[in-house]
Amino acid sequence: MNPIRHLVPLFAFATSALAQYIAPPPPRPFPGFANEKLRAENVYMSAWDIGASYRLRSEDKRGAGFTDAGSNWDFSQRPVDDTDNHYLLSRLMPRVAYTGKRVAFTIEARASSSLGDERFNATAPGKGLAENDAGLDLHQAFVYVGNHKEFPVSLKIGRQELACGDQRLVGHFRWNNNARTFDALKVRWQNPVFGVDLFTGGVVYNDSRNLNRANSQDHFSGAYFNFPTLLKNEITEAYLFARNVERGIATDNWNGVPAPFRFPGAQDTYTAGLRVKSKPNAYDPFDYTLEVMYQFGNRTVVSPATAPAAALAALRLDHRAMAVVTQAGYTWTESTRQPRLALIYSYGSGDRSATDPKSGTFQNLFPTNHLFYGYMDLSSLQNLHDIRVAATIKPTPTSIIALEGHSHFLSRTTDFWYNVAGVPRNFTGAAVGSGSGYRLNPAYSRHVGNELDLVAAWTFRPYAQIEAAVCRYFRGDYIKQSLATVGSKNASYVYLQLTLNL
What we know:
Elements: H1 33-41, E1 48-62, E2 85-99, E3 103-115, E4 137-145, E5 153-160, E6 182-190, E7 195-205, E8 213-214, E9 218-227, E10 234-245, E11 267-278, E12 286-299, H2 309-314, E13 317-331, E14 340-348, E15 358-359, E16 384-393, E17 399-410, E18 447-461, E19 464-475, H3 477-482, E20 491-501
Parallel strand pairs: 13-15
Antiparallel strand pairs: 1-2, 1-20, 2-3, 3-4, 4-5, 5-6, 6-7, 7-8, 7-9, 9-10, 10-11, 11-12, 12-13, 13-14, 14-16, 16-17, 17-18, 18-19, 19-20
């Protein structure tokens, strides 16, 4: 395993094996301009990785734009609810890394900026734009010690990305302009029978006014196992994750660390899972994946903005939830264009009742949701049924086109529709019969809507790729009923992205 090149992917989608759309590789391996020159002059420079990635993306959202109106009013027709948003995102990530026989390290910075984005909240100093981290900040800085060819144990310590399985629960979220890292310690044990990654640490929160850092009261730990020889034709993995957030995180000013967009309420939740996936070409043109996840523990659902510390301490709900993902795919391998068709079903459980003293909403943890539930990023794996059909074709070895359709249903209308960050829509006014907008109402339809996505990418130079998408969301009866008093409309999303490996 090369710990450096594994963690610095060339393009955003290259790390997800389950996503139907994967951006094409360059026509030839390209390490970057500086690396290519230095390695040509000195063969010993191959141990070094000196370069940068740069990404520029223009996004246009109509009807559901994550604007200052908030996701509560996505699809609203009220003139006061500005649901359109057009902005330009840019991200520069320079890096210096070294890979030796037993020791390696990576230092990677990140400068993220957004122009014209309406998501700025001027009343929340320190938060800044949702995808703007101002000047140059530290994205990764870790040391890796070990060589699994010589010894079964390795160690990685420092600020690092975590990506487990297909990133449905734990991912680096590089699609986002800020991406995601953890201040963590990870130990890996590997032998011919099994391997396991043991890690503990905390997610890094973005602070556009100060150096990004983790909060000492927000803990995330896990054990991720892989069994390469357990089944002949399958990749078999099992895991246990723990999210432990202390009560004081809501009352002590975050130890100086600003609150993120999604407030992590006090909780002790645990996620156990099993993932079985067919190995490449094990069943000729057919492939499949099955992943089952079960959660237990306790959590609070009290809003920290309105509840006193005593309430936060007392109101813990017993948490029991689950999620299931199944996939079946077929690839016409004999064709040079490699057409592929896949059917994917994703389920995340929902809560039975707002008055039930138990919590049944599956918690999505730290995922890369953009890969799975529609490119418009309207949903997460919480209280959701997602039926997805995906077709891809490669017109040339360096280009790909994907057409996908999603049909979204709520698992329970006694629970919320959660946005891509796991935040419930209309959290503060959700009682049955109150106000307008999304609310808990058992009489509503469970059908949220249907999404159609057309995505394409072309790697036109060894160091450059262009990517574009056109998406449309057709509202279902749940949205129509939720916004009946103000009227609703369909939504659209278009983006154009340029990625450079420098």
